[in-house]
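User: My instructor asked us to take a sequence, write out its structure as tokens, and then describe one feature of it. I'm not sure where to start. Here is the sequence I was given:
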Amino acid sequence: LLAPRIISIKVPVDMIGAVIGPKGKMINQIQDETGADITIEDDGTIYIGAIEGSAAEAAKAQINAIANPVQLSVGDKFNGSVVKLATFGAFVNLAPGKDGLLHISQIRKMHGGKRIENLEEVMKVGDKVEVVINEIDPKGKYSLVPANLPEEKAE
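Assistant: Let's start with the prediction itself. The structure tokens for your sequence are:
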């Protein structure tokens, strides 16, 4: 007989509604995806029970992504995963639910400035790339540049 593993986390009281979601949609989705049993108290304490520790941790990560979202800033450095390729660049995942665009002109800099006909020639989904947030536009979209580029020689 396995004893369930119970972990508790605290979320801001004003984020309880976001964790539950409309008609319980978010919390039910998290429970369905992870197999964890979730109880929310009025003070923002959330108890996550699961037979396997990994299920409890997965539920905790999903709840934290909603209730304690990571605030990203210009200059933050990430080792992100390429999640999607487009003709104009690659989308890189920075944090749960937060992707940024590494424009093709920036990807060229990573490859000595050579013209890239097809992005698939130089990167694929799942590749890890070191990036820095260069700009955050008014809509909250992240513009990325490569980290650790070789310095260009000034003449």
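For the description part of your assignment, you could build on this observation: The chain has a mean pLDDT of 89. Try explaining in your own words what that tells you about the chain.
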